[in-house]
Amino acid sequence: MNRNEFRSEMIRSELEDIVGQHFVSVDESDKLVYSTDWSWMPQMWLDRGQPLPTPDYIVHPDSAEQIAEIMDIANKYRIPVVPWGGGSGTQGGALPLFGGILLDTKRMDKIIEIDEVSLKVTAQAGINGEQLEWALHEKGLMLPHYAAASRCATLGGYLAPRGTGTISTKYGKAEDMVLNMQIVLPTGEIIRTAPVPQHAAGPDWPRLFLGAEGTFGVITEATMRLDYLPEARLMRAVLFTDLSKALEAGRLIMTRRLHPFVIRLYDPESTRSQVKKVLGLDYEGAYMVMGFDGDPDIAALEEQKALAICTGLGGQDVGRAPGEAWWEHRYDFYYPPLSLHLPWMYGTTETVTTYDKIEPLYWAVKRAVEEGFPEWDIKFIAHFSHWFHWGVMCYSRFIIEEPPADAQEALQLHNRVWQAAMQAVIDNGGMINEHHGIGLKLGRYMRQQYGDAWPFMLRLKKMIDPNGIMNPGKVGFGF
Amino acid sequence: MPLENAVLTTDNCRYCLMCRHVCPVGHVTRLETLTPHGWGLLISSKQRGLIDWTDSAVDKLYTCADCGTCQSHCVTDQPLPSAIAEARAEVAELGLAPANLYSLNEAISRWGNPYAESEPDAVTGTGEVALFVGDDARYLWPDGLKAALTLLRAVGMDPVLIGAGRNSGYLPSSLGFPETARRLARANLDDLQASQATTLLTLNPGDTYAFRKLYSERLGIDFPANVAIKEVTTLLAEHLGAGTLTLRRAGGGPPHAYVDPAHTVRVADRDAAPRQLLAAVMPAPAVELFWRRERSHPAGSTSLRFANPMIAEHLTYARLGDARESGAQLLFCEDAGTLSALSSKAPRFGLTIRGLYELLAEQLV
Ligand SMILES: Cc1cc2nc3c(=O)[nH]c(=O)nc-3n(C[C@H](O)[C@H](O)[C@H](O)COP(=O)(O)OP(=O)(O)OC[C@H]3O[C@@H](n4cnc5c(N)ncnc54)[C@H](O)[C@@H]3O)c2cc1C
Ligand code: SF4
Ligand code: SF4
Question: In the sheet where A218-225 sits, what is the strand order?
């Protein structure tokens, strides 16, 4: 037995002592499956028959205490710990780039308490989103983070990359729903944040863990605010010939403080392709879906006001049915073969900015992608789906249906398209991401995004994770 | 199913996570490999030369319960369980399947069932209605069959029994032995033809699924178009609604629940009937389990009990755990396989298991 094998067996046995033999795997087929999350890059390599870096140990702890002990081992042997929830992240955030311990949180899936008075739920972070939702529905409640990923993501995975769900326009991002969290720090300390987030007892440090994507520790439990299941959900679709007018309608609806739970505005290219393919609706122009929920009278009144804004700007009310079709089939877009799939090349270059900048930003990214790569018959599609009082998120995607067959060439092209899109985003005042997170893919843009603040962020990382064990290579933090 | 489709399916499923949350095996193991996406990725990786069918990879391949929950939740209806069965067939052909399965296949091939060295019963008589008995009802829970026949007689039916002691073909198909499955399927259809029936009754959704879908989709065998397939619970619920079946209400008892049988998710609109029947005789409403109806999970009664008995046991524990958490103390089901799996472990959960058909037969007026 050589030194590495000896060390490896030591680590394995120590991990088994913590979680039990059944919950540590070094099996080759398990390693293969955990070598990719939902991001394009690793999937592309595997699709082309190229093996990927794998974790050394796949570990399934069932408590914060066990994770704390795992951190001790990782610090002692200086090996990475990569949190893994549902592995549905699109940015390579859960990839075990440097091997080490892949920490699958799915055994930590208990609902600890549902409080029907204050409307909150406390659950372990590895619980699946849809299963949590089913349990809440039994009590007439919902966690209004309705991400398309709810079926595949965990509660921890909602929070770690600051996810946004389809009904965020009224209910907020996942991070807005957090009341408090339990976190295991890279040093092995188990800490709890204050019971409620809105107070004046010091700075808002718990938010550091939202968006850290596992680089600052492991979220093991969260208390989330809930809502009653709405009595009514009114859906409506409006068709605009002019995207600019549609964006203005959205802006007016939001700034006049109407409360749509969703506004989803597809650009003309998306309307022609995606909406037609998945929903079977054959429209020219920009298809906008609006939804109002809650008390039926109030929802109807708000819908009427919003509709007046839309028609005043030239929008054509196409009725409830096409809106309801979207609501009914809103997740169908993600089922293969309807979804994006290999061997295609694709990337979601989504961004967010204020209303004054959104239109130039959209056109700049579109131009950068479409005009930068004409030889690849690149498609650019976008929709605007998470609206705030101050701005809106643009969910843009590029697709190349016949990318280079050679894996390295394909990766280079992928990087070049991303570079063009992200540069256009940054130059036009956008954020490099709104809800998928940074992961591996966008780490390289963090310095540019944050400028003078970036060294401060690097120092924070060093302070929280002195040995750099937590999810190395992600969020731009390196190893 | 032609191999080409299996490749398409696993290529679709390999990176898709949209049904993982309903996979019962994924739910008890928490291991990504043992989920629809995991199996898709394993099979597609084998096709790309990234893995070999080592013992451990084969073991993983044989841990899918073939319960159909993934496909029933798939918007694009990908036949992943059939693709997994197809991959198992390839592995079995190469001599790489778990050793015990080859002898099991021989036994099924010879006797038509995995339980007894005994020929299936011959069909006697003819009639408009036949009842497929199968192997589980014959060997694992014969009282349920007796009670079902009593109930059918009470509504004026005396079906010709077919396939008594013979598996539908699901079991060998699921374990990667499609030829054996085809042989059993043909024998069952021969019985059906001999009975001259135009309605085939089934005792559980697993058999309904086998006749309605598995024969044509997996085995390439057409079920006769002129024969209607109906589950006994559906038929009885219709009679209950029409007033041609009268049942007495039972006396008080502990909180109870209905356990949806394995393969429920594979048969549309079948879950209301057994609940209606139960509600007609029980003094209080049933509590509902978390994993129920269109998201119901099987007990360890599918092909998994032969392919991976340990994980199958965990499925049974999970059903019993779900029941205990719901507050139920008494569980009903009509499916022989499910009843047998549940009752073997129920005492340690402090639960009592009862056959639904037996309960209903006792309450006949
Ligand atoms: C089909 C599909 C649709 C999607 N739709 C949406 C959508 O509508 N909205 C949206 O926001 N996102 C969406 N996503 C992206 C992604 O699914 C989400 O970001 C999701 O919330 C990730 O959750 P997960 O549990 O799968 O996390 P993973 O992919 O396992 O992990 C994501 C990152 O978080 C870290 N992490 C995971 N758990 C923890 C923890 N407990 N503590 C600390 N760090 C942790 C990981 O290390 C990794 O860096 C979609 C993805 C897919 C595949
Ligand atoms: S069966 Fe459907 S939902 Fe499940 S993994 Fe395959 S494509 Fe996805
Ligand atoms: S058939 Fe059942 S066990 Fe197999 S992948 Fe589908 S849901 Fe999971």
Answer: A111-115, A120-124, A218-225, A178-184, A190-192
Nearest CA to ligand 2 atom 7: B13
Three-state DSSP state, A104: strand
Q: What is residue B4's predicted lDDT score, i.e. its pLDDT? A: 61
Q: What is the complex's ipTM, to 2 decimals?
A: 0.96
Q: Answer whether residue B152 shows pLDDT above 80.
A: yes
Architecture of domain A232-327: 2-Layer Sandwich (3.30)
DSSP 8-class letter at A272: I
Q: Which of residues 84-123 of A touch B (CB under 8 A)?
A: 86-88, 104, 106-107
| Architecture (CATH level 2) of domain A111-228 | 2-Layer Sandwich (3.30)
Distance B217 CA to ligand 1 centre (A): 36
pLDDT digits (tens, 9 = 90+) for B277-320: 999 999 999 999 999 999 999 999 999 999 999 999 999 999 99
Ordered by where they begin, the domains of chain B are 3-97 (1.10.1060.10), 129-232 (3.40.50), 239-362 (3.40.50)
A residues 146-165 lying closer than 8 A (beta carbon) to B: 149, 151-152
pLDDT at position B31: 98
What residues contact residue B348 under an 8 Å CB cut-off, 6+ apart?
none
Amino acid at A81: V
Fold of A345-437: GMP Synthetase; Chain A, domain 3 (3.30.300)
CA of A34 from ligand 3 middle (Å) equals 19
Residues A462 and A468: their CA atoms lie apart, in Å, by: 7
Per-residue pLDDT reduced to its tens digit, A115-168: 999 999 999 999 999 999 999 999 999 999 999 999 999 999 999 999 999 999
Q: Which of B5, B23, B75, B76 should be substituted to probe chain A, the one whose Cβ sees the most A Cβ atoms within 10 Å?
A: B75
Beta carbon of B18 within 6 Å of any ligand 2 atom: yes
CB of B119 less than 8 A from some CB of A? no
Segments making up each domain of chain A, as ranges: 3-104, 111-228, 232-327, 345-437
pLDDT band at B5 (very low <50, low <70, confident <90, very high): confident
pLDDT at B2 over 50: no
Which of B18, B30, B48 is the closest to A335 by Cβ?
A: B18
Contact A28 B54 (CB under 8 A): yes
Separation of B24 CA from ligand 3 center, angstroms?
7
Q: Is A251 in the pocket of ligand 1 (CB under 6 A)?
A: no
d(CA A23, CA A118): 36
Q: B232-242 and B272-281 are packed helices; what angle lies between their axes, rounded to 10 degrees?
A: 50
Determine the distance separating the centroid of ligand 1 and the alpha carbon of A22, expressed in angstroms.
Answer: 25
Residue A216 and residue A245: Cα distance in Å, rounded? 43
The predicted model gives A358-366 an average pLDDT of 98
Using pLDDT thresholds of 50, 70 and 90, give the confidence band for residue B1: very low
Rounded distance between C-alpha atoms, residue A478 and residue B98, angstroms: 44
Stated pTM of the model: 0.97
Q: Does domain A3-104 have CATH number 3.30.43.10?
A: yes
Residue A477 CA to residue A331 CA, distance in Å, equals: 33
Q: Where are the beta strands (DSSP E) in A201-299?
A: 218-225, 227-228, 232-240, 262-266, 286-294
Query: B88: which 2 tokens?
Result: 């198992």
A29 and B CB contact within 8 Å = yes
A54-77 average pLDDT score: 98
Ligand closest in space to the Cα of B37: 2
Q: Using alpha carbons, list the distances in angstroms from residue B196 to A263, B121, B207, B224.
A: 59, 17, 19, 11
The CB of B36 under 6 Å from ligand 3? The reply is: yes
